[in-house]
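Quick one, C-alpha cells below. Sequence please?
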C-alpha cells in the first residue's frame, strides 16, 4: 500500500449519492479493486470445478446410454455425440488452472487479463445453455439449461451493480426474443412462451440481478473492512500518515531504488520544540490538531517519499539529499509562523546522509534523531547534519547502552573516591564515591561520557546499584581487615527513585554487608528535585529515619535552588563549583558564597563547597564558615588504595570526628 492509498475519502450524503452508490458508480481504491478481483478468481475456480464434474458426468452418462446400449457403434460417432461436453470439459480445466495460478501473489501482474478469459468462458457456457434450451423448447420441454447457465455465469463474475443489471437484462431479453421469434415445433409451427412462464422468467431474472447486486455489495463492504484493518496496521492513528513499521517497508524499497540509480539519500528527524508548552496551553485536542497539521505539512512537502510519525511530536522522512534543506525550511516555516502569535515554537531537524543502503531504516533514523537532539536550546539553528564527531559520540553512546549490563557483571565499573576535608584543619572527614568505567575495548571512561546517556535512556539505576554495592563491599573489607574507614557519599539520580526501589536496594546492601548507616551519605543533585515532590519527600523521610545523612548536591547550578530549600529538608548543602569559577578578585562571588553559607546555617544545614582548587579559595571558605571542602586542591578522585597510601604516608590525616 503506498502513501497515497491512505488518504481519507470525503464524506458525502444525499439521495442522488445513495443511488449512485447502490448502482456502484464510485471510485474503488486499488485495495478494494484487488479484493474484488481475487473474489472473482476464487468463484471462478469453484465454478469451473463444477463444470468439470458436470461434464465428466455427462460423458459417463452418454457412455451408459449410447455406448453400452450399442447405439453408438464407433469412436468417431461417440465423439460426435459428446463433442460439446469434451469442449466444455477442456475449457473448464483451463479456467481452473488459470484462476488458481493467478491467485498466487507472484502472478498479480497477469491478473488484468483474467476478466477477459472468464468472460469468454461465460460466453461459451451461455451459448451452450442457449442452444440446448432452444432445442428443449422446440420439444416442449423447459428451458432449464439456459436458466442454469445464466445463474452459473452470474456467479462466475460479480460485476458492479449497474453492469450486472445491464448484462443480465440484455441476456434475458435476447434469449426471450430468440424463443419467441425463432422457435418452431417438429411440424414447423411457431412457438411462444406462454403468459405464466413469462412471469416466472421475469421473476427469475429480477431475483438473479438482486442476488448479483447483493453479493457485490457484501464483497465491497468486506473489502472496505479489510482495507480499514490493513490501513490501521500501517497507519499512525492520530495523523493518518504511515507508522514506523510501514515507514520501514517503504524506506527499504526507496533505498534500493536510490542505490540502483546512484542517488544520495538523507534521513530527516523532525522534533517540534516547545510542544509540551503548546499542549499545556491548548489542551490535548489542541496538541493533537498541531500534530495533524504537522503531518499534513510533511506530506505536502515530501509527497513521494517515505515519511512517518515516529512517536509523540517526532516525525521522520527519507528523501533525496539534493535541496532537502529548502523543503525542511518550508516545513519549519509553515509551523513556526502559523502558531507564532500564540506560543513560541520551532521545528528542529536532524539529518543523516545514508551511508549504508541496506541498513535497517528504523535504526538508521536514530542518527538523525541524535543530530536533532543536539539542537535543543540553540534558538538560531534549526537544522543540523550528523557529522564524524557526532558519529564517534553516537557510537560511544550505543556502546554504553549495549554494554552497561556487561560492564556491571564483568566488573568494568570502578569506584573512585574524592577526599572531603574539614575546612578548619584539613583532616579527611569523608569521600565522595564517583563512578568510572574501565572498558577493555573503549578504554577509561569518565562519568561525563556515560552518565548522561544512562540517564537519558533510563538505565542509570543499573550503574548506581553497582556503585553502592562496590562501596559497601569495600567498607566491609576495611572493617574486617581493620583498615581506615571514612564516611562515603553516594550519588543518587532522580531516576533511581523511579526506576528502582532506591531506599530498599540501599537497605539490602547495608544489611548484607552490615554497614553502620552513619558511614553512608545520600547525595541528591539539585536538578533531580523539581519533578515528583511527594515521591522524593517520602523516600528522603524514610532515609533520614533510617539514619542516613542527606546531602543536597550541586546547589546553585540549576534554576530552582531556592525552591528546593523550601520543599525539602537536607542535612548538608553542597555549594556547586560554578561559584568558584572566576573567583579571584571577584567581590560578588565572595558575597554570594557568604550569603549561601549564612542561609544554610539559618536553615540548620551543614555546608560543603565543591571545586576547591586554590589556597585563596580555601582561606576564604575557612573564614566564611564553610564546614567541609572538596576539590583538586586536596585531591582528585582516586582509588581506595591511593587514599590508603596517602593516609599511610601522612599526606592525609583521618579525622577523629566525621560529623
Ligand atoms: P558531582 O557529584 O558534582 O561530583 C563532583 C565532580 O566534580 C566530579 O566529577 C569531580 O571529579 C569533579 N571535581 C571535584 N573537585 C574538582 C575541582 O576542584 N575542579 C574540577 N574542575 N572538578 C572537580 P566526575 O567524577 O567527573 O563526576 C561528574 C558527575 O557525574 C558528578 O558530579 C555526578 O553528578 C556524576 N556522577 C559521578 N559518579 C556517579 C555515580 O556513581 N552515580 C551518579 N548517579 N552520578 C555520578
Ligand atoms: Mg555528587
Ligand atoms: Mg556535585
Amino acid at each position: 500500500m503506498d502513501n497515497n492509498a491512505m488518504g481519507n475519502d470525503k464524506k458525502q450524503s444525499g439521495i442522488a449519492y445513495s443511488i449512485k452508490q447502490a448502482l456502484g458508480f464510485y471510485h474503488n481504491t486499488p485495495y478494494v479493486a484487488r479484493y474484488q478481483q481475487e473474489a472473482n478468481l476464487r468463484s471462478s475456480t469453484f465454478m469451473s470445478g463444477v463444470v468439470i464434474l458436470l461434464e465428466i458426468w455427462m460423458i459417463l452418462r452418454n457412455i451408459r446410454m449410447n455406448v453400452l446400449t450399442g447405439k453408438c457403434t464407433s469412436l468417431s460417432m461417440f465423439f460426435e455425440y459428446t463433442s460439446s461436453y469434451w469442449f466444455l470439459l477442456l475449457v473448464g480445466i483451463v479456467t481452473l488452472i488459470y484462476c488458481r495460478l493467478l491467485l498466487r501473489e507472484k502472478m498479480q501482474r497477469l491478473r488484468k487479463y483474467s476478466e477477459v478469459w472468464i468472460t469468454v468462458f461465460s460466453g461459451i457456457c451461455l451459448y451452450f445453455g442457449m442452444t440446448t434450451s432452444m432445442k428443449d423448447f422446440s420439444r416442449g420441454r423447459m428451458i432449464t439449461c439456459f436458466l442454469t447457465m445464466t445463474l452459473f455465469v452470474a456467479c462466475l463474475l460479480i460485476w458492479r451493480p449497474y453492469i450486472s443489471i445491464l448484462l443480465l437484462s440484455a441476456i434475458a431479453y435476447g434469449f426471450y426474443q430468440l424463443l419467441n421469434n425463432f422457435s418452431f415445433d417438429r411440424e414447423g409451427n411457431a412457438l411462444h412462451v406462454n403468459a405464466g412462464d413469462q412471469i416466472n422468467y421475469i421473476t427469475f431474472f429480477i431475483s438473479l440481478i438482486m442476488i448479483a447486486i447483493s453479493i457485490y455489495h457484501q464483497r465491497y463492504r468486506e473489502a472496505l473492512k479489510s482495507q480499514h484493518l490493513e490501513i490501521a496496521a500501517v497507519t499512525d492513528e492520530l495523523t493518518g500518515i504511515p507508522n514506523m513499521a510501514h515507514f520501514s517497508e517503504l524506506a527499504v524499497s526507496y533505498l534500493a531504488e536510490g542505490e540502483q540509480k546512484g542517488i544520495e539519500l538523507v534521513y530527516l528527524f523532525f522534533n517540534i520544540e516547545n510542544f509540551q508548552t503548546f499542549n499545556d496551553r491548548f489542551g490535548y485536542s489542541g496538541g493533537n490538531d498541531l500534530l495533524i497539521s504537522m503531518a499534513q505539512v510533511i506530506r505536502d512537502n515530501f509527497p513521494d517519499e517515505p515519511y512517518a510519525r515516529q512517536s509523540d511530536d517526532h516525525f521522520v522522512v527519507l528523501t533525496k539529499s539534493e535541496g532537502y534543506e529548502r523543503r525542511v525550511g518550508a516545513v519549519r516555516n509553515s509551523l513556526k509562523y502559523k502558531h507564532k502569535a500564540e506560543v513560541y515554537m520551532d521545528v528542529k531537524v536532524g539529518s543523516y546522509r545514508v551511508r549504508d543502503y541496506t541498513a535497517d531504516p528504523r535504526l538508521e533514523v536514530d542518527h538523525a534523531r541524535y543530530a536533532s537532539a543536539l539542537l535543543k536550546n540553540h534558538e538560531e539553528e534549526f537544522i543540523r547534519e550528523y557529522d564524524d564527531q557526532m558519529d564517534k559520540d553516537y557510537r560511544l553512546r550505543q556502546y554504553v547502552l549495549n554494554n552497561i549490563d556487561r560492564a556491571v557483571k564483568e566488573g568494568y565499573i570502578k569506584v573512585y573516591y574524592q577526599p572531603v576535608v574539614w575546612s578548619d584543619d584539613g583532616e579527611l572527614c569523608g569521600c565522595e564515591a564517583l563512578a568510572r568505567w574501565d572498558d577493555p575495548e573503549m578504554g577509561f571512561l569518565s562519568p561525563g561520557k556515560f552518565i548522561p546517556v544512562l540517564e537519558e535512556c533510563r538505565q542509570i539505576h543499573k550503574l548506581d546499584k553497582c556503585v553502592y554495592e562496590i562501596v559497601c563491599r569495600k567498607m566491609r573489607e576495611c572493617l574486617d581487615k581493620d583498615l581506615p574507614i571514612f564516611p562515603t557519599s553516594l550519588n543518587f539520580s532522580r531516576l533511581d527513585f523511579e526506576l528502582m526501589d532506591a531506599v530498599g536496594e540501599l537497605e539490602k546492601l547495608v544489611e548484607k554487608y552490615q554497614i553502620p548507616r552513619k558511614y553512608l551519605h545520600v547525595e541528591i543533585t539539585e536538578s533531580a528535585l523539581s519533578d515528583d515532590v511527594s515521591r522524593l519527600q517520602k523516600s528522603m523521610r524514610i532515609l533520614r529515619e533510617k539514619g542516613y545523612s542527606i546531602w543536597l548536591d550541586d546547589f546553585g547550578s540549576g534554576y530552582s535552588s531556592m525552591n528546593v530549600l523550601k520543599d525539602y529538608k537536607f542535612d548538608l548543602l553542597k555549594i556547586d563549583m560554578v561559584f568558584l569559577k572566576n573567583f579571584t578578585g571577584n567581590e560578588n562571588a565572595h558575597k554570594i558564597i557568604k550569603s549561601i553559607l549564612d542561609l544554610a546555617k539559618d536553615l540548620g544545614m551543614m555546608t560543603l563547597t565543591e571545586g576547591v582548587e586554590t589556597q585563596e579559595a580555601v582561606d576564604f571558605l575557612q573564614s566564611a564558615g564553610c564546614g567541609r571542602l572538596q576539590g583538586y586542591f586536596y585531591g582528585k578522585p582516586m582509588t581506595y588504595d591511593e587514599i590508603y597510601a596517602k593516609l599511610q604516608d601522612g599526606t592525609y590525616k583521618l579525622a577523629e570526628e566525621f560529623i
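Residues 20-232 form one domain. The two ends are 70 Å apart (CA to CA).
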